[in-house]
Design a protein that fits this description.
Elements (H helix, E strand, L loop, with lengths): L2 H4 L6 E8 L4 E8 L5 E9 L13
Antiparallel strand pairs: 1-2, 2-3
């Protein structure tokens, strides 16, 4: 995960992100406390798809 998504070490953080591995895609909760400790929890299994503009050629 890119470090700029996690902020500075002293920043608290609560993010919900769709993250994918080689096996599956999960809606994931990432919490970071003031000490910089991360807690990552997989919330639910999801299937992500690419957004396509209306009328765009998808072939």
């Amino acid at each position: 995960m890119p470090s700029d998504l996690l902020g500075d070490d002293t920043d608290r953080l609560h993010k919900v992100l769709p993250l994918a591995s080689d096996e599956a895609q999960f809606l994931t909760i990432i919490d970071k406390d003031a000490a910089g400790q991360l807690e990552i929890r997989k919330l639910i299994l999801v299937r992500l798809s690419r957004l396509v503009a209306a009328g765009a050629n998808t072939l």
